[in-house]
Backbone:
């Protein structure tokens, strides 16, 4: 992986052979309340395995999107900050070159794609992902009969040994493309909303085509508050965060990721 | 979405489609046969057709409008209804999870009776025709001696109307159960705003939100509505960023979203509000309307910031600064609620907080306090009656003293779980000779039943809802069945039946007065009759000359609404209200800590069946990321003082009982306060809920709010002791190892507001 920070000339803003479409998301941290609607919406849309208590205790829970909670400061001047984290769909994705079987690759729409039936479960990609956005199916799923009834027929039910992660609800993208094609039309702004975006009550999440200058997501990505998580790694993500506004914070104060006592982890 | 957009939608969507009830715009044309896949195109994947139906969510607690994706006869996904005024396309974790209460493997599929005796835990499935005649006979006999009691959740809309008429005509006593009673909020609203329907605080359009105790983003009349308003308040287009100050006993999720949060001593929230009023008035006389509360025109001096700083625990300069910002903002709104309403002086707390809005003269103004539009139909109640804790005590006391009703009917309420343990609601209700439950899950109260007549899930049945919030529109949300009742699909199964339909058919056969009061045979007929009334008005979101087209269009849109005319309410009347200090269950010597029971943003207060959803169980609590169980949030200082480590099991003891749960070091809580999340501690409710965690409602002391008769659920004091045992609190935090760049923050903050 080339490090953008080292001043390489490579233009990483566009994936190979772009088709005029690069899906991206803007996350406005000033809007996010931490309500978890996106998390449950994602589980419902994408047939994610149930995170039973045992699985959580084994630290093998799967959440394509999670709300990280960062403690900051000391009581009574303590703050808790919420940050939605999911696959950043990097244009320079660290997960892609390490896959020995090309199960993960970059497609023409800027999506970082996981091909389930190629995956052999080496887990190299998860180890190489700085965002911890990839999850491995350690268990064959054992669904109650009635819990099969609501599965989304357009999303594969993954088996044991498969890596999975956020797809930007690619099934919804394909669906919208098809619906537009019925009328000989191109995809329009606003046609596609991943499940998390559709649920989010505060409009924290905005999804769209970053290559369309007029799209809302492209315009928000130019907002003064924009940044990318771990930008220095040169991953060139397609997810852009907008900084949380805190009138009482001084720019130099550490927004450190402290955590409760000895919990040994600072992302939720 | 603004009002204009909704009306525009009203003009374009759906009308004239005649036969289709499906939600407009979501169907797919059939012309192309297309193979599709999540990634590439596997050869064996065929696009089927799905249909979206609009209905009302009864699981989320606010009756938000939803659209449900149905494919191959099964509900597959729930989204917010983009047309519905309350939630405009958005949804909550709870609304999403209704798929799991619908397809809950532990739903009761058929009518059943206990094998051998009541409470044996083993049941025999029955056919409806085999059990209904006996039920009807018992009801008829008990009616003669006025021996029928009906217990339900607080419910409005058509079910509220049917329950009221049914209980009145049959001479039954109707009790409703609300575990964390909001009587203080409602009555303070009646005193200050002139209506017991708690108004809509216009957070979306205000410049300054002052919340004392109200956790409107996690447990309020509608967290989706307020979530949406909050997004606009922060970064809405065409407005400057709003400022939000929050005072509460501990750092809740809502508090975490405030620009500044300050801990306040439990029970002194009203004093704090009057101190803010003192600073806002800045020497001006107290307005006449507020004088009863403040004890006359000139006496607010006692509440000067420096005089109350010690009592409330809020520094004087904070009070002064917040009051100044509040008063100086172009528009500002003050919200009260949460644990502040659950003290013995809850009515004073709430009235003093709400009265700050009178100082700002913001009632009925944009960015202020907006009164809710009435129900569009006079017969259909917008408000649900709530039985006070005092009345519950009286009722249970009467049974203990021998006045035992003959028949008890239960629907949607779980008093055995939700009432304080010292009331022994379970063993007391057990004295009633014949108990019938309409619950479709086996909860703690239903476990006492002699006959269980399982209700449909809300996605399988008819109903209506008048939204709890809504100043702009007078709304009737219509809930239609979106899938066939699941348990009727299996050959030979008796299946479930809609509660309202069972009541209506009973009414038909129980005599003329009942049949007259309830002239419909099904809930659908009752709703259809109301919708025909709406059609006759000729205005609103749907209009048509053809009643059939109108009906189908209303179903397709998820309801009917009309822009509200100006809403009037009584003038403020604070007569008789005086400042009061909070009393507690016991003294601070033996029980040094305040117990604050905190409803979960996911599981609520635990009285419903949400805990049966593994999605909600396994989704991280926003603050602690804990899942699947109960924990005790303690200040790290308190833990150090008591020699408690993280994950140590501690015993929390009140005068009314004790519970065991692992300790969680919570940076946002003071040394005198303990917060325990609600939602767990079920003995029943199926495989995903039973026997996990503890129910903190059980150890609440039965302290009553004098003016309202409500349970003072914040008045319990506790002591904490280590047990020497340890466990591991399951939580999402730590599953993904922390990655921080040395010179680059993951969470970035700016102090530039523009």
Residues:
């Amino acid at each position: 992986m080339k490090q953008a920070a080292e001043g390489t000339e490579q233009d990483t803003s566009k994936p190979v052979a772009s088709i005029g479409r690069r899906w991206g998301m803007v996350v406005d941290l000033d809007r996010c309340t931490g309500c978890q609607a996106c998390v449950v919406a994602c589980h419902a849309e994408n047939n994610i395995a149930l995170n039973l208590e045992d699985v959580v205790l084994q630290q093998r829970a799967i959440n394509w999107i999670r709300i990280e909670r960062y403690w900051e400061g000391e009581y009574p001047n303590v703050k808790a900050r919420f940050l939605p984290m999911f696959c950043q769909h990097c244009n320079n994705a660290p997960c892609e070159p390490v896959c020995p079987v090309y199960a993960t690759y970059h497609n023409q729409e800027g999506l970082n794609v996981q091909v389930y039936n190629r995956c052999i479960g080496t887990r190299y990609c998860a180890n190489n992902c700085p965002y911890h956005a990839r999850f491995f199916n350690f268990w064959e799923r054992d669904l109650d009969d009635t819990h099969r009834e609501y599965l989304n027929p357009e999303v594969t039910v993954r088996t044991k040994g498969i890596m999975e992660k956020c797809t930007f609800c690619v099934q919804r993208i394909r669906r919208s493309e098809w619906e537009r094609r019925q009328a000989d039309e191109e995809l329009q702004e606003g046609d596609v909303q991943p499940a998390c975006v559709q649920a989010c009550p505060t409009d924290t999440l905005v999804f769209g085509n970053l290559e369309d200058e007029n799209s809302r997501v492209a315009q928000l990505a130019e907002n003064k508050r924009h940044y990318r998580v771990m930008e220095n790694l040169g991953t060139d993500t397609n997810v852009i965060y907008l900084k949380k506004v805190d009138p009482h914070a001084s720019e130099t104060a550490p927004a450190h990721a402290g955590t409760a006592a000895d919990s040994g982890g600072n992302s939720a | 979405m603004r009002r204009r957009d909704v009306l525009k939608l009203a003009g374009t969507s759906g009308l004239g489609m005649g036969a289709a009830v499906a939600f407009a715009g979501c169907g797919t044309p059939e012309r192309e046969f297309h193979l599709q896949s999540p990634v590439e195109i596997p050869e064996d994947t065929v696009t089927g057709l799905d249909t979206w139906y609009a209905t009302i969510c009864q699981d989320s607690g606010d009756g938000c409008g939803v659209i449900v994706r149905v494919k191959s006869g099964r509900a597959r996904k729930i989204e917010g209804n983009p047309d519905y005024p309350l939630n405009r396309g958005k949804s909550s974790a709870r609304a999403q999870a209704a798929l799991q209460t619908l397809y809950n493997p532990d739903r009761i599929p058929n009518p059943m009776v206990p094998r051998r005796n009541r409470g044996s835990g083993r049941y025999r499935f029955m056919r409806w025709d085999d059990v209904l005649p006996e039920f009807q006979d018992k009801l008829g006999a008990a009616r003669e001696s006025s021996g029928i009691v009906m217990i339900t959740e607080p419910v409005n809309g058509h079910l509220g109307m049917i329950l009221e008429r049914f209980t009145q005509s049959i001479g039954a006593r109707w009790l409703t159960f609300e575990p964390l009673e909001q009587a203080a909020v409602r009555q303070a609203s009646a005193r200050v705003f002139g209506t017991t329907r708690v108004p809509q605080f216009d957070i979306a359009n205000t410049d300054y939100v002052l919340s004392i105790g109200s956790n409107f983003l996690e447990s309020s009349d509608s967290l989706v509505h307020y979530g949406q308003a909050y997004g606009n308040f922060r970064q809405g287009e065409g407005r400057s960023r709003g400022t939000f100050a929050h005072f509460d006993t501990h750092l809740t999720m809502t508090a975490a979203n405030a620009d500044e949060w300050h801990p306040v001593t439990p029970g002194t929230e009203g004093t704090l509000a009057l101190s803010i009023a003192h600073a806002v008035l800045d020497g001006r006389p107290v307005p006449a309307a507020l004088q009863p509360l403040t004890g006359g025109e000139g006496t607010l001096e006692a509440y000067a910031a420096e005089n109350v700083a010690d009592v409330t625990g809020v520094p004087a300069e904070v009070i002064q600064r917040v009051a100044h910002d509040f008063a100086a903002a172009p528009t500002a709104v003050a919200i009260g609620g949460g644990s502040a309403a659950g003290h013995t002086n809850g009515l004073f707390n709430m009235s003093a907080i709400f009265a700050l809005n009178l100082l700002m003269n913001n009632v009925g103004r944009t960015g202020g306090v907006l009164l809710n539009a009435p129900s569009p139909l006079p017969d259909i109640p917008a408000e649900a009656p709530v039985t006070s804790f005092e009345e519950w005590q009286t009722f249970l006391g009467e049974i203990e003293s021998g006045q035992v009703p003959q028949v008890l009917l239960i629907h949607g309420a779980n008093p055995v779980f939700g009432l304080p343990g010292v009331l022994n609601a379970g063993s007391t209700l057990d004295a009633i000779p014949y108990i019938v439950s309409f619950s479709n899950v086996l909860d703690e109260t239903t476990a006492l039943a002699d006959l269980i007549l399982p209700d449909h899930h809300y996605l399988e049945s008819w109903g209506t809802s008048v939204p709890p919030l809504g100043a702009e529109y007078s709304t009737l949300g219509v809930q239609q069945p979106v899938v066939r009742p699941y348990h009727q699909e299996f050959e030979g199964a008796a299946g479930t039946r809609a509660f309202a339909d069972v009541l209506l058919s009973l009414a038909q056969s129980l005599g003329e007065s009942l049949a007259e009061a309830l002239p419909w045979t099904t809930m659908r007929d009752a709703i259809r009759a109301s919708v025909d009334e709406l059609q006759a008005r000729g205005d609103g979101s749907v209009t048509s000359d053809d009643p059939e087209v109108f009906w189908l269009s209303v179903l397709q849109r998820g309801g009917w609404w009309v822009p509200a005319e100006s809403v009037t309410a009584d003038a403020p009347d604070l007569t008789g209200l005086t400042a009061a200090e909070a009393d507690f269950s016991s003294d601070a010597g033996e029980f040094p800590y305040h117990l604050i029971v905190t409803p979960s943003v996911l599981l609520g207060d635990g009285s419903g069946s949400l805990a049966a959803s593994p999605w909600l169980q396994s989704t991280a609590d926003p603050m602690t990321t804990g899942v699947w169980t109960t924990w005790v949030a303690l200040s790290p200082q308190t833990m150090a003082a008591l020699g408690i480590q993280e994950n140590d099991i501690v015993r929390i003891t009140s005068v009314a009982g004790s519970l065991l749960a692992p300790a969680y070091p919570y940076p946002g809580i003071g040394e005198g306060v303990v917060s325990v999340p609600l939602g767990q501690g079920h003995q029943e409710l199926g495989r995903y809920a039973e026997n996990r965690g503890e129910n903190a409602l059980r150890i609440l002391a039965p302290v009553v709010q004098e003016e309202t008769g409500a349970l003072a659920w914040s008045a319990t004091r506790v002591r904490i002791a280590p047990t020497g045992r340890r466990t591991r609190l399951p939580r999402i935090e730590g599953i993904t190892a922390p990655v921080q760049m040395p010179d680059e923050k993951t969470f970035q903050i700016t102090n530039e507001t523009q």
Remarks:
- Residues 283 and 445 of chain B are 56 Å apart (CA to CA).
- The two ends of chain B are 23 Å apart (CA to CA).
